[in-house]
Amino acid sequence: MAEQPDGLISIQDFVRWGASRFNAAGLHFGHGTDNAIDEAAQLVLSSLRLDPGLPASFRDCRLTPAERVRISELIERRVVERVPAAYLIGRAWFAGLEFLVDEHVLVPRSPIAELVEAGFDPWIDAERIGRVLDLCTGSGCIGIAAAAYLPDVDVDLVDISPEALAIARRNVERHKLEDRVRVLESDLFDGLGSHRYDVIVSNPPYVSRAEFDGLPAEYHNEPRLGLLGGEDGLDLVIRILDEASRHLNEGGILVLEVGNSAQFLDARLPGVPFTWLEFERGGEGVFLLTREQLVEYQSQFEEALAS
């Protein structure tokens, strides 16, 4: 049974108490929030099925005894098990949209959201985008958001994990996009045949072995398959670079997140002119290459793949 503190009655009481517990426990925040107060607010409000943007005046509302017990138990689990709040409440937000999540998918947090919201402008004219591929899709958040922000675009969501794809399908249904979004099981491009796209976007496993071993406990509650990308984090990244041009239309672009493994990528492919994207809301380690650039440097990708 979780601790039942005396004197806590309102929503705001539990947000404050939860934040204090989180800070005292030295929790790590990196799965949709970056501080204890926002993490506690997300946990409390979501457990009550209330929107994160709840007006401040409602935060003084009193909780029922059952609600107080439920929230106390969630706060206790967050502290003891180091489980990200998104898993405890079963949902997360990406590009302003709500997604179902569980322990089989990463918690959505990619800075690529900002690019999707902009319709991939200025890197490609939105009117030229007919098909988008979200490779290593996980929950489906990137591809589904692309379909939501680009209402005339068809999207394929691809992942090797059947469990992740089950969540992606539920999110497609949740956003009523079954007519434009397909969910496909494939090891990267292997099951896609000759399909071509105008945009390929991917947040693949890219964490190096050393970085993975040093990650806070919260990250080790996420699927290892979605994080670990080999010794230098680039096992799948190099494969994607090697194969992407064959699945892009003329004028198409590849957008790929590699996080802290960017340093290893530059070292392995020093002559490739990666365009490293900047984001107003923060985030780094995302590059863009055009199909023409991918074709021009194909031999280097093949050499890197063979090494």
Overview of this protein structure:
The protein is an alpha/beta fold. 37% of the residues lie in helices and 15% in strands. The protein contains twelve helices and nine strands. The model has no long low-confidence stretch (mean pLDDT 94).
From the 3D structure, determine the CATH topology of the largest domain: Rossmann fold
Total domain count? 2
Percent of residues in helical segments?
A: 25-40%
CATH superfamily heading of the largest domain: Vaccinia Virus protein VP39
Structural class: alpha/beta
In which order are the strands of the major sheet placed?
A: 5-4-3-6-7-9-8
Mean pLDDT equals 94
C-alpha termini separation = 54 Å
Helix/strand order, N-terminal first: HHHHEEHEHEHEEHHEHEEHH
In a nutshell, what does this entry contain?
The protein has 307 residues and is an alpha/beta fold. 37% of the residues lie in helices and 15% in strands.
List keywords for this structure.
2 domains; alpha/beta; Helicase, Ruva Protein, domain 3; globular; seven-stranded mixed sheet; 15% strand; Rossmann fold; 9 strands; 12 helices; two-stranded antiparallel ribbon; 307 residues
